[in-house]
Amino acid sequence: MSTRKTARRQPLTVAALLGWIALTATVAAAPEGPKLGKPLNAADIAAMDINVFPDGSGLPPGKGTALEGKVIYDAQCAACHGAKGSGGSAGELAGGSALNGPHPDQTVGNYWPYATTVFDFVLRSMPLNAPRSLSDDQVYAVTAYLLHLNGLIGESAEMSAKTLPEVRMPNREGFVRIWPNGR
User: Fold this and answer.
1) Is 27 part of any domain?
2) Which pLDDT score, from 0 to 100, does residue 115 have?
3) pTM above 0.90?
4) Which one of 8, 15, 77, 159 is at 20 to 30 Å from 129 when CA atoms are compared?
5) Tens of pLDDT along 149-161?
6) Does any domain span residue 159?
């Protein structure tokens, strides 16, 4: 004799059947959607394929200095990040207290591990109201300006695909390294 209980099916009521039919009809008649977006072709995808790595691979051709970057920063960045990166609605980028202090600040100079990461972030995301609107030369210049504000390079030092990876960030060893191969 089996001790297994079998579930009893409840009889299908007319109300349940009509509800199921109404639900199915509603789903089938659902609108197609707002038709947002567009299909991407290979050229569209290539334009978005940005991969800048800590060693500098993936950096585009171009160059810029902090002197050039100040003009761009003042026009495009200061409204959110404050004069000379001192802070604004989007936070400070330069100065601030040490990471091991009572009120640590995560600025470019005391937190970011690689200068190439700064470039990558600015290239992808800034300015907030028009991401990807800066040319590669402008991004190199803004990156140079941010590095200069943090005392890492001189104002006339030229940042490029060759020189940017050579900048030694103070907190480079403050992260668990997983690239490349955990070394």
Assistant:
1) no
2) 97
3) no
4) 159
5) 999 999 999 999 9
6) yes
User: Tell me, what CATH number does 129's domain have?
Assistant: 1.10.760.10
Rounded to whole angstroms, how far apart are CA atoms 139 and 122? 7
Task: Return the closest-CA partner of residue 122 out of 182, 80, 167.
Answer: 80
Per-residue tokens: 121: 């972030």
Domain hosting 62: range is 50-174
Give the pLDDT band (50/70/90) at residue 25. low
36 domain-assigned: no
Confirm whether 126 is domain-assigned.
yes
- Span 40-50, pLDDT tens digits: 888 888 878 88
Alpha carbon distance 90, 137 (integer Å): 23
Encode pLDDT of 92-141 as tens digits: 899 877 777 777 778 898 889 999 999 999 999 999 999 999 999 999 99
What lies within 8 Å, CB to CB, of 63 at 6+ separation is: 137, 140, 158, 159, 160
Distance CA 35, CA 74 (A): 38
Sign of CA dihedral 130, 135, 137, 140: positive
- What does the alpha-carbon distance between residue 166 and residue 129 come to, in Å, rounded to a whole number? 31
